Amino acid sequence: MKPTFLLLWITITTLIAAQGQAQSLPAQQFRKEIADPTGKNILDVRTTDEYTGGHIAGAVNINWMDSSFGKKALLLPKEQPVYVYCLSGGRSAKAAAYLRSKGYKKVYEMEGGMLKWRAAKLPEEKTTTGKGLFSKSDFEKALKTDKLVLVDFYAEWCGPCKKMEPYLKEIAQDKAATVTVLRIDIDKSPELAEALKIDALPVLHIYKKGKLQWSHLGYLTKDKVLANLQ
User: Fold this and answer.
1) pLDDT in tens, 132-146
2) What is the maximum alpha-carbon separation in the chain?
3) Is 86 annotated in the active site?
4) DSSP assignment, residue 175?
5) What is the mean pLDDT of residues 196-217?
6) Does the reported pTM lie above 0.70?
């Protein structure tokens, strides 16, 4: 092997190894990286029960084993880094590989998952049962009004949903006399989402006297939403 080619081969190998090390982080380093979660996505790919039992603060839950994982995960902003973890590292490795294959450049896995996190006695939080829950009964009651009801079905991990949130809040304030705006997190109200067949995001519904008048799937600008609130 010629010296020049050997040097090039060593350099490329070293860069690949360094990149691999940078993308797989020990629990303590993982914690340091997410200390300031601004502009970052913390992704828990375990089951809902596992997540509820204890998770890293600020993490969103998209189950790797769920058939809708790809559809949901690809709504995460590609320009932001994604920090992925599971229980022991197996599922997060697969999820991270999937995200990289879809064009996500900065994807970091936690080595050993929550088992290592807990072994290091790092902090976690539990989901309070019923917190943020919007039942079918609650929903039906909310529709019993003379106002138009604009319903925004969203999730914390949904990039387009976050872009729409500011103007939906403006509509809620500016048109309070004639329009009620409901924002429903489908991850906290899964039974309602299933009953209404909400399986993609974002989704907007407009109801009049309890009946669905208009529905839209995907990002929509404020002016187009307002045009349907006449």
Assistant:
1) 678 888 899 999 999
2) 81
3) no
4) T
5) 93
6) no
